[in-house]
């Protein structure tokens, strides 16, 4: 029996075929990918089926006479590529997937049941054997970035010569293509997708917050020079029951003697709950706004 679901879908699929087995009350669904068919847990990239992830980076190129390699450096400073297909961290579960013979697509993804780390991902690409043959013309590489519930983003980069490193992904590397960020962490907000262009202490709600945003202490805060102040985060617990804790040590911009020490907690088992814990706020928070803002929607 089919049932209507009022919930918004995570993603929309085109060219889907559903076969019903009325004898066993089951069904099988696939979606077409060129001449191939992919399962609903796979995405179609350049007529190749790849694992669908909570977050994924797929490199594709048109030339089919060699192999290239995507390299991702995660916010937790783990480097993932074909030579190191997984991290050793249970808090950073990205993995490399060899797609077919590796001559058209290379793929790194975080499984659907995992939580990609918040922060900036460095995206790099090694030309591998693509520019080592008789064809020495430049090659253009497209990186498709899929983050569940978000539009697909792309990065395009042209390489005119072979890269010199395979396992390095830094901004100074000749493999470097760009940065991709999940969430936004600043001195007075924690944003879960895109929050750009806002001014400190602007009126709330703000149209600059394009996703749910935590405001644990909306005030003019700074990190004092020569101190251990800053924003730190750590993760407690095991998979499916983890707690992510962001800990702030900050000073008020115009009152250097006013100090703030507080935490923001998120719970994997309670996805709609955020908790603020104030450990030491010298002015009692009398100049701050505290709360949350949902995604801004133009009226």
In short:
This protein has 299 residues and is an all-beta fold. Helix content is 0%, strand content 46%. The chain contains no helices and 23 strands.
The backbone outline, from C-alpha atoms, is globular
- Helix share, percent: under 10%
Order of strands in the sheet with the most strands?
9-10-6-12-13
Q: Pairing-aware structural class of the strands and helices?
A: mainly beta
Strand content: over 45%
Overview of the molecule:
This protein has 299 residues and is an all-beta fold. It folds into two domains: 135 residues; 109 residues, no CATH class. Helices cover 0% and strands 46% of the residues. The chain contains no helices and 23 strands. The two termini are 38 Å apart. The N terminus is likely disordered.
């Amino acid at each position: 029996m089919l049932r209507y679901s009022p919930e918004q879908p995570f993603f929309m699929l085109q060219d889907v075929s559903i076969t019903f087995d009325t004898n066993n009350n089951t069904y099988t669904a696939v979606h077409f990918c060129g001449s191939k068919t992919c399962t609903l847990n796979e995405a179609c990239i350049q007529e190749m089926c790849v694992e669908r992830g909570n977050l994924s980076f797929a490199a594709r190129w048109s030339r089919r006479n060699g192999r290239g390699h995507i390299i991702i450096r995660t916010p937790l400073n783990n480097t993932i590529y074909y030579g190191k297909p997984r991290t050793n961290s249970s808090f950073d579960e990205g993995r490399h997937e060899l797609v077919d013979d590796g001559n058209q697509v290379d793929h790194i993804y975080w499984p659907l049941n995992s939580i990609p780390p918040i922060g900036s991902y460095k995206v790099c690409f090694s030309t591998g054997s693509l520019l080592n043959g008789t064809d020495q013309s430049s090659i253009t590489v497209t990186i498709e970035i899929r983050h569940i519930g978000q539009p697909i983003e792309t990065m395009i980069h042209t390489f005119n010569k072979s890269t010199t490193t395979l396992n390095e992904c830094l901004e100074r590397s000749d493999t470097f293509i760009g940065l991709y960020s999940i969430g936004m962490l600043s001195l007075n907000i924690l944003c879960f997708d895109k929050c750009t262009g806002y001014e400190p202490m602007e009126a709330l709600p703000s149209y600059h917050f394009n996703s749910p945003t935590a405001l644990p202490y909306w005030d003019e805060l700074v990190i004092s020079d020569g101190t251990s102040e800053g924003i730190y985060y750590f993760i407690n617990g095991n998979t499916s029951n983890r707690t992510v804790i962001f800990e702030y040590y900050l000073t008020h911009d115009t009152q250097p003697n006013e100090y703030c020490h507080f935490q923001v907690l998120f719970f994997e088992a309670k996805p709609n709950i955020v908790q603020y814990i104030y450990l030491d706020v010298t002015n009692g928070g009398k100049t701050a706004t505290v709360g949350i803002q949902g995604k801004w929607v133009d009226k």
